[in-house]
């Protein structure tokens, strides 16, 4: 009806066009008059017919407030600034967003540019509108050290607000779309940065949420400002091709209409043209010329029902031959962003490949407007538009990632990997379908089911076959996860997981584990330092000693005892300094050092062969203790411990040159450490084996190492010109020095081996 009225109005105006002489006398509207029209509420009124009178009045109030707040501000084009909020609100009205969203669109720059406070917005327009505006507001740049840090924090704030209320990102995308449409007015030096940000962030978010029309427009506008020359050349080429193929397109359209009419099926046909950016990307990625891109044009067929989609597919396949491997059923298996359509590529007249998309009206609305379809399309059964279909499952996952990630840059790294919705579809053993990003692994699948399953994953089967955990999933795989109570996340998983959810869960677990281990190490180090002051043990964390711990925490600046011990374990606090302060506090209460213990500890400190009260290492310390790669200590080696800045305890051999230089520079950070009587795991060390260049020598040496129960973790050969002999350098895992000696003896007995020795660290 609206389209008909519009046509009637155009016809009426053309019927009363004045003679040329009269029209010449009518003055054109001045720029000031045009600006005034664009800045008035009337520019928005015609789009609000879906709102009630009360809602329209609320939007009008927000307009008046914004107009007053932006009074005197101009855009780069010279237009009043209020034209921008009106254009943003107009785009939101196209999506039929509610009055609160439209008010937020009009007010979205009020806090940032006009000094309006959130409290003032709450008082005037209510908390929901104020929260939307706050979610859209960038953070104060003065709070951050770098532009990247500020940008990451701004995106985190926006995305979290978006996860709580999707209207935030809809208004933000409308804002970015209008800014891109008017980017020609901005200084040229800003084009590349804004366009790249739009291409890397906002366009993928629009795609992820199913806003296809906005996604395509943002891509093309970014491309036009990033690569103006290439854009112009491609636009010219597409226009020429459009002219050449006009007759072909019209012929195909007519034939399709006739075929559907003969089958008595109603259909609405629309042409679809590939965007210039997608053409450019395809040419660039696949190294094609423009002439080799065959799917520039296509048709979109809107039919009444889902059954009609499949019936229409049969009609098309009877008309033209389908191209093998080019059929996709996104109705049975919707994309991650809720998109549903049947896609097929057919060989049309003159051998030209033409893509057809078949969908219902409801699918078309979701395909073009994604999450905005919640407002645009009111289904008879509201349950049809499930949250999973409309992409809000991804929005909820943002809150989950935020729970484990407090650093803005790290949060943004997690989110970026989930922004591109190319997906693989796999099945659980109970035939439940799951969509994951392309390249996702078995571990991603486990965490997608539940974080508890991911944390305890020990093995997996795909289609009944045992596979490594790093195996990438393929469409149609049936994946079974095997868990074990003793299994825990492995740091190596971070090297291959694809989803932000899995990555954040693994990192959170490892950080929590490292915190607990560092606290335990800190307690050991503080107890050891306190023994050097003549006290046998730490005061208990109880009511009797609460005052002492509070005074000590005020001295160190920590909030809790646990935080203090963790800082000591991480090397952020020196145990000996804390111990001296603690001893002074205890002395005020009458505690006296044990003279025998004091003399014994001081004697132990001066004699490195004696290690009374040393930290004992058995290999179970994990991330709180690291064994230096420069010397690779193993049980039996004389060792020393260096408490690095924020990296926990690093263990060196006594003769290690690196350790000796550190000791010379920073002796108070060294602590006595010793091996446990029975270490619980093997330790890596380096060996160099000199061999004759005989056939099969590497295999014989590897077999000898395996027979001696030494695990090979790394091997490299000297990169030299061919000679009679060469050096093989291995990193092997052994139990202790005795085991290492046995391994070297076994290797020396192997044929073609000239020498075998442990790698000696450089002094």
Characterization of the model:
A hairpin with a 5-residue loop joins β5 and β6 (353-360). This protein folds into 5 domains: 32-227, Hypothetical protein af1432; 231-384, Beta Polymerase, domain 2 (2-Layer Sandwich); 392-500, Roll (Ubiquitin-like (UB roll)); 509-675, no CATH class; 683-758, ACT domain (Alpha-Beta Plaits, 2-Layer Sandwich). α7 crosses α12 (167-181) and α12 (167-181) packs parallel to α14. The protein starts with a helix and ends in a 5-residue tail after the last strand. The chain contains 32 helices and 21 strands. The model is unreliable at 1-26, 139-146, 374-391 and 605-613 (pLDDT under 50). The strands form 6 sheets. Strands 1, 2, 3, 4, 5 and 6 form a 6-stranded mixed sheet that branches. The protein has a 4-stranded mixed sheet with strand order 13-15-14-16, sandwiched between helices. A 4-stranded antiparallel sheet has the order 19-20-18-21, covered by helices on one side. It is an alpha+beta fold.
Cα-to-Cα separation, first versus last residue: 88 Å
Q: Which architecture of the largest domain per CATH? A: Orthogonal Bundle
Q: What do the pLDDT scores average to? A: 77
Number of helices: 32
Oligomeric grouping of the chains? single chain
Question: Secondary-structure map with pairings?
Answer:
Elements: H1 2-15, H2 20-25, H3 31-38, H4 42-45, H5 53-69, H6 83-94, H7 99-107, H8 110-114, H9 118-125, H10 127-136, H11 147-164, H12 167-181, H13 191-208, H14 212-226, H15 228-244, H16 246-262, E1 268-273, H17 276-286, E2 297-303, H18 306-319, E3 321-322, E4 328-329, E5 342-347, E6 353-360, H19 361-369, H20 373-376, H21 392-404, H22 408-416, E7 423-427, E8 433-437, H23 442-449, H24 451-455, E9 457-462, E10 465-467, E11 479-483, H25 500-532, H26 546-556, H27 561-569, H28 575-588, H29 595-606, E12 615-617, E13 625-627, E14 639-643, E15 649-653, H30 657-665, E16 670-671, E17 673-675, E18 683-692, H31 697-707, E19 711-717, E20 725-734, H32 737-748, E21 753-758
Parallel strand pairs: 2-6, 12-17, 13-15
Antiparallel strand pairs: 1-2, 3-5, 4-5, 5-6, 7-8, 9-10, 9-11, 14-15, 14-16, 18-20, 18-21, 19-20
Helix pairs in contact: 5-7, 6-7, 6-12, 7-10, 7-12, 9-10, 10-11, 10-12, 11-21, 11-22, 12-14, 13-14, 14-15, 15-17, 21-25, 22-25, 23-25, 25-27, 25-28, 26-28, 31-32
